[in-house]
Every structure is written in structure tokens, then in C-alpha cells.
Design brief:
Length: 361
């Protein structure tokens, strides 16, 4: 076997790296599959920006299914399996999924910035068709960059520790071809997306600050929901950047210190790579937590609106809704902190309307 594909780690380090990757793979597949199943079950109710979160889940589960089995088996084998062919495949998949993820996060930040209104309810609204076209553009953009090394601009190669493959970062100082590819890739697929993420969320924070200074009492619930959705996007983006920053830092160090590459401990190059793979695990956790709390807020807001402004539907519909939801819900839940005038004036109407809303949830 080619020396460059032999593991530079000890067998025990390879074993524990393999165990770690098995755990990451299982959690990634189960978590992101759950996100996709939930999205499929409520596909008609998905708002356009939520499709970006679904796209993130697709990239995460795609990475786990297409890449992790090869890296796991190579770790337990104490050497890369398949040689140049699988190295090329692994690098290609890694480029496509990683670029798709970071560009999706950047677009998510820009969409959230435009959607977030100051005051609330004044932001831009996107159609699902528009977001779907953007997502297709993201995948084409990532695929184009992944194909460039195959077309002669840049190249792929094994990582220094021997159990993964990616861009040949050490080739930066060897030729103008490698140098121009790596610098252009770094600017267009790393630095600019990261700047977009940072500046858009600072802009969102400023918008929300201004909104809460002039917010009307009847818009408070809406503003609270918007804040939670934005916080979810911030946490997902921050988690991705934190997970990948050590790997990018080590890669850039190897670019400018290729002559000193042999002096770097293989474990130092392995740990950032393993840490970066954790980014596929926590996105589903963040998504499910905020989806639950946001949907609860939406339901509370809908109940208040139905209680105070909607008329009764037919008696048959009300009776059917009450049979489905039982007798547990009524407007007494608003006696602590909501408009008691609404409860007092509407009475039975409020109870019936709320039952209808709960049946829809």
C-alpha cells in the first residue's frame, strides 16, 4: 500500500477515532432523519425559510452516509481503504457537503435579516419557489467547486494523519495553480460566507433592538416568536463555525508551513478533523428544541387571536373539535398574563375557538 495512505497514528488512537466516528455517524443519521421525517409530515405547513433548515439536514445526513463509513472502516483498518479512487470520492463528497452547508448558513442569515422586520410584520416575505431555486443554486455552486480539482485547478490528497482526504493544502507553496485555487476557494467559500453570517446576525440584532423599543403590546407575541427563530439560526450558524474553525486554522497553518509539516504531531491534525464532524450532530437537537418552543408560542398567539376576533363556526364543527381534543383546554390558561377582558367578554366563544385551533395544531 502507498505510504501516504498508511495511518500515522497508533493503533489504539485509530481504534478510539473509529469508535468516536461510529457514535457521530449514528447520532447524525438518526437526528437528521428525524428532522426530515418531521418536515415531510408537515410539508404543506413549512414556511419558505424553513426549507433552508431542511437543506442543512440533507447535507448533514448525506455526509454521514457517504463519508463516515469509509473513514470508520479505515480507522479500524489502521490504513486508508481503496487508495486513490476512494480518496478522490471522499474528497469530492466532503467538498460538496461542506460548501453546501456554509453557503446555506450564509443564505439563511441573509434571509433571516430580510424577513426580520423593524417593527415586526414589516419584513420581506419569500415564496417557497424562490427558496427552492436558491437551494438548487447552492448545490450547483458547491458541485462546481468540487469539480475544479478534477478539471486541473487544484488537487485532492490525503490528510497528514492518513485516515481522511481533502484539498491538498500543502500544495499551496508548490505551484501557482494550487495557490490560486486555495486562495480563491478560501475567499469565496469560507471568508465571505463567514462574514455574511456575522454581519447579517449583527444586523438582525440591531433590527430587533429597534423593534422592541417601539413595539406595540399586541405585537409582543409575534416579536417573541421572531426572536426565537432568529436565535435558532444563530445557534446553528455559530455551532458550525465553532466546529470547523480549528480544522480551517490547522489547514491554513499547513498551507504556509508546508516545510514544517513533518514536525506537526499527527494527533494535532486529527483532532480538528474529528471535531469538525460533530457539526452534523447538534443541528437536529437545536432544531427540535426551538421548533417545539416556537410552535407553542404560535399556538398561544393563535388562541388569543381566535378568542378575541373570530366568530363561532357551526355547532357541528365545534362539537367535533371538542371530541377530538377533549375537555382539557379552555381560556382559563389566559387568566395569568393575557387579556382577561377577552376571556370575560367572549366566554364560551373563546373556549370553542381555542378548541378549533388546538385541533389544527
Amino acid at each position: 500500500m502507498d505510504e501516504k495512505y498508511m495511518s500515522k497514528l497508533s493503533p489504539i488512537a485509530d481504534f478510539w477515532a473509529g469508535i468516536y466516528l461510529v457514535i457521530i455517524a449514528i447520532l447524525s443519521i438518526l437526528g437528521n432523519a428525524a428532522v426530515l421525517v418531521c418536515a415531510a409530515r408537515r410539508v404543506t405547513l413549512l414556511k419558505a425559510p424553513e426549507l433552508l433548515t431542511v437543506n442543512l439536514a440533507i447535507t448533514d445526513i448525506g455526509m454521514a452516509l457517504s463519508m463516515y463509513p469509509l473513514s470508520i472502516s479505515s480507522a479500524f483498518n489502521h490504513a486508508w481503504i481503496g487508495g486513490d479512487t476512494t480518496c478522490l470520492y471522499y474528497s469530492l463528497m466532503g467538498m460538496i457537503f461542506s460548501i453546501t452547508s456554509i453557503i446555506t448558513l450564509a443564505v439563511m442569515g441573509m434571509v433571516r435579516y430580510l424577513v426580520t422586520g423593524s417593527p415586526p410584520k414589516t419584513g420581506v416575505r419569500f415564496k417557497r419557489r424562490t427558496i427552492l431555486m436558491v437551494i438548487c443554486g447552492i448545490w450547483l455552486y458547491a458541485t462546481l467547486w468540487a469539480l475544479f480539482p478534477l478539471l486541473g485547478w487544484g488537487s485532492y490528497g490525503p490528510e497528514p494523519f492518513g485516515l481522511a482526504c481533502s484539498i491538498d493544502w500543502t500544495g499551496y507553496g508548490e505551484s501557482l495553480n494550487h495557490a490560486t485555487f486555495i486562495m480563491t476557494l478560501s475567499i469565496l467559500c469560507t471568508f465571505l460566507p463567514c462574514l455574511a453570517i456575522v454581519f447579517t446576525y449583527f444586523g438582525i440584532a440591531w433590527k430587533l433592538h429597534r423593534a422592541y423599543q417601539s413595539i406595540q403590546s399586541n405585537d409582543f407575541q409575534y416579536g417573541n416568536i421572531e426572536k426565537k427563530i432568529t436565535l435558532m439560526a444563530v445557534m446553528i450558524s455559530s455551532g458550525f463555525l465553532i466546529a470547523w474553525t480549528p480544522y480551517v486554522s490547522v489547514s491554513f497553518w499547513s498551507m504556509f508551513h508546508s516545510q514544517e509539516q513533518d514536525h506537526m504531531t499527527p494527533l494535532i491534525t486529527l483532532l480538528p478533523c474529528l471535531f469538525a464532524k460533530s457539526s452534523t450532530v447538534y443541528n437536529p437537537v437545536i432544531y427540535f428544541f426551538f421548533q417545539r418552543t416556537t410552535r407553542q408560542e404560535l399556538r398561544r398567539l393563535q388562541r388569543v387571536m381566535f378568542c378575541c376576533s373570530h366568530q363561532l363556526n357551526s355547532a357541528a364543527e365545534v362539537e367535533k373539535a371538542e371530541d377530538q381534543m377533549g375537555k382539557d383546554t379552555d381560556c382559563n390558561i389566559y387568566e395569568n398574563g393575557t387579556d382577561e377582558t377577552c376571556v370575560g367578554l367572549v366566554g364560551a366563544r373563546c373556549h370553542q375557538s381555542e378548541s378549533q385551533v388546538m385541533s389544527l395544531g
